[in-house]
Amino acid sequence: MYFEKTLKLTHLAVMEMLHTGITKADETGQPQCIVIVDASGVVLGQIRMDGAKYLSMKSALAKARTAASIGGPSDAIPEAVGLAIAAATDGEVTRLGGGLPIYSEGIRLGGIGVGSGSPDQDKAVAEAAITAIGATAKQEQV
Question: Which pTM value belongs to this model?
Answer without folding.
Answer: 0.95
